[in-house]
Design a protein that fits this description.
Number of strands: 11
Radius of gyration: 24 Å
Structural class: alpha+beta
Length: 331
């Protein structure tokens, strides 16, 4: 409580952030995370509470990431609404902003974010420490701070309105979740034109599109968004878990089982259940029954190897009775 009551903007000076790198799912590259001190985190949270109502009021209608009472499932539901009908748009611009948090222009933030500029400058210019060296932060809003998602969202607000004004009465629908977005379009040519429009919009804010991830796709070929795969089969739109998402959860389960080689069965179950429950709850609203069956079989195989490795001298029946019988019947 004393720490909370000591928060003030008088002569406020933010300390450098601690930089760590975490692996990206399914990739060899790592994502930079900059962690503020507890005091600076509290200051950011305080200003975030004031900025949140403004951000919600000025937000794009179809922005779903880091928003109150919105989720990835809401984004997928709206995408389904835009694409499911026979006369819906057939072409999709899949987009990704390269290093969104790390490259936002500070001048743009200082000019357009309605808060104390001296405090905002401290948040943005604090620098970070990595391997006992101090590095400056000349651009970007550090991932890891409570206020960074709001700053990133407010920087990107306006794309939807600009597209609506430039392409009126067309089947152009913009959907964004954090730095991932998609745009439904009636033709491939319009999708290419929209890519140029968004590219110009981002350039004004110090951002750029990831060209290898920004592609134009036909709905019959399918596309991935937020771990889901959207595709029409004989004119019917189905949303399934993407193969990247399935491979990522399989790899995570494998690592968890590997770490539990010396643990007990109860410890393994305790470690696996939150992972499985979280992933299935994320995908349970979609067409996922077949994927769940395949994942269930993969889990059975990896846990069977776990049990066999613990008892190399025992037969299959003994292992099955030991680990796959109800608790009261185990031997």
């Amino acid at each position: 409580m004393r720490a909370a009551l000591s928060l003030t903007d008088r002569q406020y000076h933010a300390k450098p952030l601690r930089r760590i790198y975490i692996p990206k799912p399914g990739k060899t590259t790592k994502r930079p995370i900059s962690i503020p001190t507890m005091h600076d985190r509290a200051m950011q949270a305080l200003y975030a509470l004031a900025l949140q109502p403004i951000a919600e009021t000025t937000a794009d209608a179809r922005s779903f990431g880091f928003r109150l009472f919105r989720s990835a499932q809401d984004a997928s539901e709206y995408a389904f609404t835009c694409l499911a009908r026979k006369n819906s748009a057939q072409w999709i611009l899949e987009g990704d902003i390269r290093g969104c948090f790390d490259t936002i222009a500070h001048d743009r933030l200082m000019e357009h974010i309605p808060m104390d500029r001296s405090v905002l400058a401290q948040f943005l210019k604090a620098g970070y420490i990595f391997e006992e060296r101090l590095f400056p932060t000349d651009q970007g809003a550090a991932q890891g701070g409570p206020i960074s998602p709001i700053l990133a969202n407010m920087t990107l607000y306006g794309i939807e309105g600009q597209l609506a004004a430039k392409f009126p009465r067309m089947k152009v629908n913009f959907i964004r979740y954090a730095d991932d977005f998609l745009v439904t379009t009636p033709t491939k040519e319009i999708a290419e034109e929209i890519r140029g429009t968004i590219k110009e919009f981002l350039a004004e804010r110090g951002l750029e599109l990831s060209m290898e991830k920004t592609v134009v796709t036909h709905i019959d070929d399918g596309f991935g968004f937020l771990g889901y795969n959207f595709r029409k089969y004989n004119g019917k739109l189905l949303i399934k878990p993407s193969w990247k998402s399935v491979e990522a959860i399989t790899e995570k389960i494998g690592r968890t089982v590997k770490r539990a080689r010396a643990g007990t069965q109860d410890a393994l179950i305790k470690a696996l259940n939150p992972i499985i429950r979280g992933w299935t709850n994320y995908h349970r609203h979609n067409v996922a029954a077949e994927t769940f069956k395949k994942l269930d079989h993969r889990i059975w195989k990896v846990t069977w190897r776990w049990g066999k490795r613990r008892h190399p001298d025992k037969g299959h029946k003994w292992i099955a009775r030991r680990y796959w019988q109800p608790e009261g019947n185990r031997k």
